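Protein modeling request. Please complete all fields; requests missing the sequence field cannot be processed.
Requester role: graduate student
Desired output: 3D structure, token encoding
Chains: 1
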Amino acid sequence: MRASKIREFNVVRKDARKVEVLFGYAYPSTYRTGMTSLATHLFYSILNDRKDTSCERYFRYDVPSPCHSMESSRPLKDNQVVGFSLTYEEDIVNLIQMLELGGIPALAADRSESDPIVLVGGPVPSSNPEPYVDFVDAFAIGEGDIVIHKIIDSVAGTDSRTAALEQLAQTDGLYVPRAMPSEVRRLIISDLDALFHPTAQIVPEVAEGDKLEPVFGKSLLVEATRGCGHSCKFCLVGHVCRPWRTRSLNRLEEIITKGLAETPVHKVSLISSSLGSSEGFEELAAWIVDQGYQLSVPSLRADSVSKGFLSSLAKGEQRTLTIAPETGSPELRRSTGKALSDEDIEHTVKLAAESGFNALKLYFIIGLPGESEQDVAAIPMLVSRLGKLASMRITVSVNPFVPKAQTKWEREAQAPIEVIRSRVRIIEKGLHGVPHAYVEPLDPRNARIQAALSIGDRSLGKAILIAARHPGYGGWRKAQRDSGIPLLSMANEQRGQQGDLPWAFIKS
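Delivered output (508 residues):
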């Protein structure tokens, strides 16, 4: 198997004969998505900074092989640990496919002493790992950068796979299903300044717009904040990543200065779930663009954006403003826990237009608990008003409500697929004739799968394995039929308010 033909900067290649631990960092999706994830750069740098460890990367799609590394074509099964980052529920099928293509048994019970330890972290298992226990030897629950060194020390310090798993089962923040613990604590660190941050990040040498280019383009990814302080009832990040924490401006300037010296890019992408709420970030944005660098940020809260901040973003060549009103109705918005008024949204859009933005992306959720058709009809009404305020291209992203484990609405029901489709039609009809407004609805079939995987228990393992071996939505239908598990309607009924849920053993 040949090494990757993708030319990349800041790749680390070590002699496997001169280290104790071989770690495969696997992202079960496209190369583009995986390289957009800060976690890829974070764990790659942390692990390769250790003299005793060689970390190499694997991706499911758009690489020469999903089971041979980017760095040296090292077979996936030759690693002592294969660590997956699971950010989206449906990527579990890609994870299983990568294991089987790499010659590693999909089922943890079938693995021998010669097989790698399969480790999985990320927001999905940190909220509810139970649907995936059949395939995983150990889960990192919470913020994995706190525990990664203990994992490597356990593997390096024991003489067998079994002994290493026994050691991992005793480690705070790790869930080893075979050990059947009664409680697992989710790891959260309070001081972001004390955490390592990668500065020499890998950058692919590809043309702008190439399918391999990261989502934010060739840029330095900088984690400005972590978590969220708003705790909207539907939001996973606002619950499993609490509390909201921020890096100090001095530390961020250090990271950016060092990162731009070590990474061949001219753009900084600030990663944050609530950046505008941070004191001093208007000055940080101005500091970045005044040095001649481009700047991009993710979705912003409409009630925390200043004219100066938006002006710096425009100067940094960001032209699309992304905000998440969630609903068109202020009353329904308040019921979700999102204290955001229509006036806040309209004011921010007006400021963005004045600052030079030419595109607006809006995120909405339909099928929310307590939602009426009038609430849905309020979405195109809000978009129409925004279109009159600013001559901008408006992308309206519409997503069905998905109940998420560990959130305030973890027991709420998901609307039937027929209801979701009818409400998408209300929005599309309401936006007909609104200039430069485009609707991007998520297929409600995918939302049903996400919901089942979010609130399910370990009985789903059989169905997941069938779906992994029969790709596409048809595979999930076959999984439901052959397993006898009604996974495609599993979330359509409200879970009772009494009794423990499958993830109750995870404690904050």
